[in-house]
Amino acid sequence: MSTVTVLGAGLTGLTTALLLARDGHDVTVLERDPAPPPADPLAWQRRGVAQFRLLHIMLPRWRAVMAAELPDVLDALVAAGGMRTNLLHLRPPAATGGRREGDERFDVVTGRRPVVEAAVAAIAERAGGIRILRGVAVDALLADASGAVPHVTGVRAGGRELASDVVVDALGRRSPVAGWVGALGGRPPARERADLGFVYYARHFRAASGVTPTGLDAALTHHDSVSVLTLPADNGVHGVAITASARDRELRGLRDPACWDAAIRLFDATAPWLDSEPVTGVDVMAGIEDRHQEYVVDGTPVVTGLVAVGDAWACTNPSLGRGASMGAVHAQLLRDVLAAHGTDDADTLVRAFADATATTLTPYLDSTLVFDRHRLAEIEAEIAGMPYRTDDRGWAVSTALAAGAAVDPELARVHTMIGGMLATPGEVFSDAAVTGRVLEHAGPPRRVGGPTREELVATVAGTRV
Ligand SMILES: Cc1cc2nc3c(=O)[nH]c(=O)nc-3n(C[C@H](O)[C@H](O)[C@H](O)COP(=O)(O)OP(=O)(O)OC[C@H]3O[C@@H](n4cnc5c(N)ncnc54)[C@H](O)[C@@H]3O)c2cc1C
């Protein structure tokens, strides 16, 4: 068994640490934020995770990984007030045709991000084989750079050096590690980086009845120049967010609660979600980058002794809610690759992990990027008052699926397979019968129950302080 240093005690870092420790590895986790989870997770100060207060849903794929690997995390989340519910059956019964055999694959356990992360952290804190050192900032890699490919042997953190067989970068979307690798003198990692240009305006509410509303076509609905996200959370609390283009100056007033409230009430299906007590102001996040890096370039590692997982490997616009699921699957892949290859052959380890990532996760990353780029272009076209046109047949199929899912229970399930990260669009649409059924709904995007762009802008302008 090996010594492993995991950088970052976020959702992915802790999940990775748990899976590796349970496989017998000796794991140390280094986390810059000093505070362990307090008794009230909502009081937790997590400066290292900018999106800590924003809406999060843990998809069916995340629940499935946890149920298979770390059921105690799900138990801890439920004990902390997390809700067991079903992503498909958040839709109205008319759209789902009621419960059917197999629908349990869409089960989820929901919770606000601090509540979910505190549940994972509580299990990790008491697990054997893991040392979590908080208040420790990693600032450099230790490496043997004498060979053709630099080999990472550990890290430097707060003036001390920590050696290990493998270093796992789980430092999240702003991880500096690829830059440190570039400075080791070998070939640079492959890196892509772009600001996707979305902004989130989010609030949480507590339903007076204690019963979380349901009944939208899906948790994420698209309306002209904005999308609306409605998510159950924990302890009777739910969240509602509007996502828009960060360049959309006319909607910037949405950061004001009165303005946000007036705007969201224009969406018929969303309004019932507001008949509740707000428990937050409007949390805003922009500057959300799409970042992706690879340590195997043109088939050859540029570094060994180091792998990146979760957001440190790739992160995108989060409106599809895939980040935690991607991180959990990545943790499983690393555990399996380490079990198969160990750490003695450093080159094989890095290659095998890159192969596993490319096979299992890259298709989800690619489909998320395609969605993001089309949706942002569609929003920009709506703002300019033009219909969005593209030659990409994939976008036409995806738009048709969203329309079909609102009226055809079979397609609601297909849509939730993709939305729940249980299948990629490529896997689903390789079935010609499914594609044929979806294309019966082809046409302009279905926009129901929302304001026109003019009404939305006028409402924001009229209530802006
Ligand atoms: C607005 C928004 C909404 C989102 N909604 C969803 C959603 O609904 N569902 C979903 O699954 N995902 C969602 N995501 C994505 C999700 O938040 C991320 O995928 C997830 O946080 C990734 O976890 P991670 O552990 O890889 O990284 P992080 O959570 O970013 O953790 C990185 C850790 O590294 C620590 N760190 C940083 N630098 C150092 C250093 N030098 N030394 C030591 N420690 C350091 C940080 O303090 C932090 O604890 C959303 C993201 C955003 C931006």
Automatic annotation (TrEMBL):
Q: Which organism is it from?
A: Pseudonocardia dioxanivorans (strain ATCC 55486 / DSM 44775 / JCM 13855 / CB1190)
Q: Which residues form the FAD dependent oxidoreductase domain?
A: 4-36
Name of the protein in question: FAD dependent oxidoreductase
Q: InterPro entries given for it?
A: FAD-dep_OxRdtase, FAD/NAD-bd_sf
A Pfam family matched by this chain, by name?
Answer: DAO
